[in-house]
Amino acid sequence: MTDLKSKLHSLCVNYVQTRMQAAEQAIAEAQQAQNDDTKSSAGDKYETGREMAQQETNRNLAQLNEANKLMVALNQIPVNGTSAKAENGSVIITNNGNFYLAISAGMLELDGKTYIAVSAASPIGYQLKDKKAGEAFILNGKTYQILQVL
What ranges does the record list as Basic and acidic residues composition bias (predicted)? Predict the structure, then answer.
């Protein structure tokens, strides 16, 4: 069980690291484009190109900042231990899917099974939080029966 949580946690860390690397690469490319932009006789064209590169850099810096926040949140999630109720770090098995309550990282494939990494702040995460095996809730017209909390 702890092994399952630790593997899911590692998949989430990989997801965040991939996002961070993509943002860093895009920032480097935008800065290179900004540096390579040479001033022409049409000064407005030069300024527009530089401004567009700056906006791209700013957008990617925001994405990098969000990825860093996700990593901080992940580092606070325990990967061992169990609880009778769903909390951050819990694996929740329902009749409509398996969930890992951590960060919103989407579908995770592990040992032939699919788990959906969700944040406690997401609509499904909010419904899962503090629930115990045997409890149920309805979200978007779909009933979720909690079979097991690991």
Answer: 36-50
3-class DSSP string for 64-132: HHHHHHHHHHHHCCCCCCCCCECCCCCEEEECCEEEEEECCCEEEEECCEEEEEEECCCHHHHHHCCCE
Sign of the four-CA dihedral 117, 119, 123, 125: positive
CA–CA dist 124, 137 (Å, integer): 10
Domain boundaries, the chain: 2-75, 91-149
Contact indicator for 30, 56 with CB cutoff of 8 Å: yes
User: Using one digit for the tens of pLDDT, what is the confidence trace for 30-54?
Assistant: 888 777 765 554 556 556 777 888 8
Q: How far apart are CA 1 and CA 90, in angstroms?
A: 10
- Total length of the chain: 150
